[in-house]
Amino acid sequence: QALCTIASRAATGSLRSYSATSNLQDRVVVAVGGNALQRRGDRLTIENMLKAAAEMAPTIATLYSEHEVVLCHGNGPQVGELALERSNATFDVLGAESMGQIGYVLAQ
Question: Alpha-carbon distance 75 to 103, whole Å?
């Protein structure tokens, strides 16, 4: 729900209230795969992820104008990149770190 709230503020500057009883026809799930935040041939950096997220933001904002948007994401490539940088870190820590990075990128 936190990511949905972030998407709603970015789209309209205001918040909408939805509940578990909201009409399912009004709800759209947007699944952003980890690879969607990395363009072919580009390095996996925060700057490049921000560019990719900025490209998809207008589409998500358009969906939000008529629907409740539930935004979720993958993190495979991001975890892999972090694992190469931190060989002693466990995957639960790397997964949490990558989720924080992606949440930040999508909130921008």
Answer: 10
